[in-house]
Amino acid sequence: MVLGITGCPGSGKSILANIVARHGWMLIDADEIGREVVENNHGVLDELADVFGADIINSEGKLDRRLLAVRAFSHRSKTRMLNEIVHTRLIERLKTKISDIRSQNNDCVVDCALIIEWGIEKLFDIVVCVASDEHLRKKRLIDRDGRTPEEINGMFAAQLSEDEKIKKADIVINNKESIEKLTLFGKMLSGLPGYCDGGGDG
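User: That's the sequence. What structure does it adopt?
Assistant: Structure tokens below.
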């Protein structure tokens, strides 16, 4: 079983993915793959610096992801440029990881905000969308990450609306209550039939 978890920024999708993983499922984090793509490929870093400014690379030669996000999400054309540089490579690596896990008959949960935007729903047996009221999502991003309203608006504009993600999902989980409720949902998802418990072929 390969379970894809998506949702808008601040929805709680990463928390849910990690809860499922704690019940014995392998975890793939698309953001982590993105970091690998950038940090292990100087050509990608150079392309990003050319488009978004040399100062997105700090004094240690590392990418300032927050500064890149501010600039990349400032306009749709900039977001498109980011996608062209990073996301094609990221998606190919994600496909390879999922294929490897399937070949080993392991169950896997994938934390990936842009499943719907990338049109990769068919990579997964089930797509789960974690939904939450917009004001709650904004509050979480401010409290957790110290994001500014301008940053949050840019992040939201760079993704499809929550309604559009919900329409394409197989399961929708509303995360407007306590972490205990989200934990319960994660436990329920981890009990879905899969490879490890003798379920189907994924």
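The longest strand covers residues 2-7.
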